[in-house]
Write a structure and sequence with these properties.
The complex is a heterodimer of chains A (242) and B (308). With 242 residues, chain A is α/β, with parallel strands linked by helices. Chain A starts with a strand and ends with a helix. Chain A has helices spanning 44-52, 74-80, 97-105, 111-120, 125-128, 139-153, 169-184, 198-202, 221-230, 237-241; strands at 2-13, 16-28, 33-37, 59-64, 67-68, 82-85, 157-161, 190-194, 206-211, 214-219. Chain A has a single domain, classed as Rossmann fold (3-Layer(aba) Sandwich), CATH 3.40.50.300. Chain A is 37% helix and 26% strand. In chain A, strands 6-7-8-3-9-10 form a six-stranded mixed beta sheet, sandwiched between helices. Chain A has a four-stranded antiparallel beta sheet with strand order 2-1-4-5, covered by helices on one side. In chain A, helix 3 (97-105) runs parallel beside helix 6 and helix 4 (111-120) crosses helix 6. By secondary structure, chain B is mostly beta strands. In chain B, the strands form two sheets. Chain B has a ten-stranded mixed beta sheet. In chain B, strands 3, 4, 6, 8, 10, 11, 13, 15, 17 and 19 form a ten-stranded mixed beta sheet that branches. Chain B folds into two domains: 1-141, no CATH class; 169-308, no CATH class. Chain B starts with 5 loop residues before the first helix and ends with a helix. Classes of the chains: A alpha/beta (242), B mainly beta (308). The A-B interface holds A 52, 54, 73-75, 78-79, 83-84, 86, 89-90, 92-96, 99-100, 103-104, 106, 132, 149, 153 and B 219, 247, 281, 283-284, 286-295, 301-302, 304-308.
């Protein structure tokens, strides 16, 4: 179980402190597939980065299974069982797909094991296993490899930051299938996805709507989705100006 | 007949991945002396009459054979210059593994300067692998100044992999290539310097024949207070294509000077150069940390991959 207590985060802009996350409280139960959505700039990615430890909060705490992990760095959190798929996956000159999958698995997995993770994300393993993770890969290919690294890690909390961004329509069907499969095999782990995609929102156990660094709505898709689809934005432009 | 001590065997393993006497032709040199030699029906190794080095003759049409010519120095204060000439017959296709390992535990400088000349016959193909390695904790410097000259006949192909990852204090590497029509040269250089090491690598590639091509790619990492200079020039004297690339990671107080340059003396010479120097990207480290690696382990993985 992940608990977030009174979490706040701010950045310095022109020497003025601007709060991105305001006193946020949140609990994510085990076995849950949670989707966080909200307008651009609402703090979704920041929240995910705070959970992974990439950003440090100005106040508040984060607990994993009752243990306070606020002071732990990225590596320590990764070892506690948190994993993170980047919105824009990183490229590495010289590091091959199989190297990254081995690093993710934390052991020397066989080529066939590495291939099975690639096949799950819809990549023909034979074509990709020896490829370098460099600029020869397209954005969509990188995203799928990124998801494969999370599959290889088998962690208890998986965070995905906009997995659909940069994925073409054809691949998107596959992506939904991957998440449906992950959901069916979730057991006592939990999955948190940041997404704007209706299809991903539909398969959530719970949707959290984030607006201006606060949770504005929370509920099951049947409850939240009609409201989200019915309006142009969770926060109206006029409201923002006020 | 190969007589090597434990240190020399370890050096040989580092530079040539050899755990025992290789198959095919070989010439082992240890502390300035011949330690073992074997010629085959197609590859003959003979000492130069003045004793300054060896000549390696590969018969025309020789296929799938290899030549190993490792050199090890484990005696402090030894300085030598060795001339090795390779005569590769037409249509031959061979692998040549060279390399030098220096272990210097003493206080005097040890230096090996290998001058390798390749005369590559028409349509012949060679793959040349050279690794340099230094070890030992003495105050004496480990110095390697290799000179490589390549003369390629029509339609020949030379692929060179040169690697110097560890322990060489000072190196000045010079490579000169002359290519005739349809010849192809591919160079892959990998270099890492640390401590207060200094490395200079200079290339002059002359594309003299029609449709000759060259691709010279260097990847390097400069750590601690080390310095590197990469100076690569491709000269196009005919309709040809050439590409040179220098890609470096800079760390700590390292210093890197990259001078890729091109000279076109023919209107149909197509030449490209690229150079990039930068530190390891922060998001690369973060990504590997999210997989459970420490910052230091992440850095090692990134460098290992980069220098692959």
């Amino acid at each position: 179980m992940l608990e977030i207590r009174n979490l706040s985060f701010a950045v310095n802009e022109d020497e003025v402190q601007k709060e991105i996350i305001h006193d946020l409280n949140l609990t994510i139960e085990d076995g849950k597939f949670t989707v966080i959505t909200g307008p651009n700039g609402s703090g979704k990615s920041t929240l995910a980065r705070l959970i992974m430890g990439i950003e440090k909060p100005i106040s508040g705490s984060i607990l994993l299974d009752g243990e306070d992990i606020t002071g732990l760095d990225i590596t320590e959190r990764a070892k506690k069982g948190i994993s993170f798929a980047f919105q824009q996956p990183v490229r590495f000159k010289g590091i091959r797909v199989k190297d990254l999958l081995r690093l993710a698995a934390g052991k020397r997995i066989s080529v066939s094991e590495a291939c099975s993770y690639l096949s799950e994300v819809g990549l023909c393993a034979r074509d990709y296993i020896d490829r370098e993770i460099n600029s020869s890969l397209s954005g969509g290919e990188l995203k799928r490899i990124e998801i494969a690294t999370l599959l290889a890690r088998h962690t208890r909390l998986s965070l995905f930051d906009e997995p659909e961004a940069g994925i073409d329509l054809w691949s998107f069907q596959n992506l939904i299938r991957i998440f449906e499969k992950m959901r069916s095999e979730i057991r006592d782990s939990s999955i948190v996805i940041i997404s704007h995609q209706e299809r991903i929102l539909q398969i959530a156990d719970e949707i959290l709507v984030l607006a201006e660094g606060r949770i504005s709505e929370r509920g099951v898709p049947e409850e939240i989705l009609p409201r989200l689809i019915g309006q142009t934005a969770p926060v109206s432009a006029c409201q923002k100006l006020q | 007949m190969v007589q090597l001590d434990a240190i020399q065997k370890r050096l040989i393993e580092e530079i040539a991945d050899l755990h025992s006497v290789p198959e095919g032709a070989y010439n082992f040199r240890a502390n300035g002396q011949l330690a073992g030699r074997s010629s085959t029906a197609n590859i003959e190794i003979v000492s130069k009459s003045d004793g300054s080095g060896i000549d390696i003759h590969v018969k025309p049409g020789t296929k799938n054979e290899s030549v190993h010519i490792p050199v090890v120095l484990s005696q402090s204060g030894l300085k030598e210059t060795v001339y090795n000439d390779f005569y590769i017959g037409e249509d031959a296709d061979v692998v040549i593994v060279a390399g030098c390992g220096i272990d210097n535990c003493g206080s005097q400088d040890s230096e090996h300067d290998g001058v390798h000349r390749f005369f590559v016959g028409k349509n012949a193909k060679i793959k040349y692998v050279e690794k340099h390695y230094g070890s030992g904790d003495g105050r004496g410097q480990r110095i390697l100044n290799p000179v490589t000259e390549v003369y390629q006949e029509e339609g020949s192909c030379v692929e060179m992999e040169m690697e110097q990852i560890k322990g060489v204090d000072s190196t000045e590497r010079t490579t000169l290539a002359e290519l005739k029509a349809g010849a192809r040269l591919v160079v892959k250089e990998r270099l890492m310097t640390h401590g207060s090491q200094n490395a200079v690598s200079t290339y002059q590639v002359n594309l003299n024949g029609d449709n000759s091509t060259a691709d010279v790619v260097s990847r390097s990492v400069a750590r601690d207070q080390s310095r590197q200079t990469f100076n690569a020039r491709i000269t196009g004297n005919a309709p040809c294509s050439g590409h040179t690339e220098c890609d470096s990671i800079i760390m700590d107080q390292g210093k890197i000077l990259a001078i890729p340059s091109l000279e076109a003396n023919n209107v149909d010479a197509m030449l490209v150069h690229e150079a990039a120097i930068g530190k390891i990207a922060g998001d690369q480290i973060i990504k590997l940390m999210t997989l459970g690696l420490t910052e230091q382990q992440a850095e090692e993985q990134i460098i290992n991959g980069f220098l692959r």
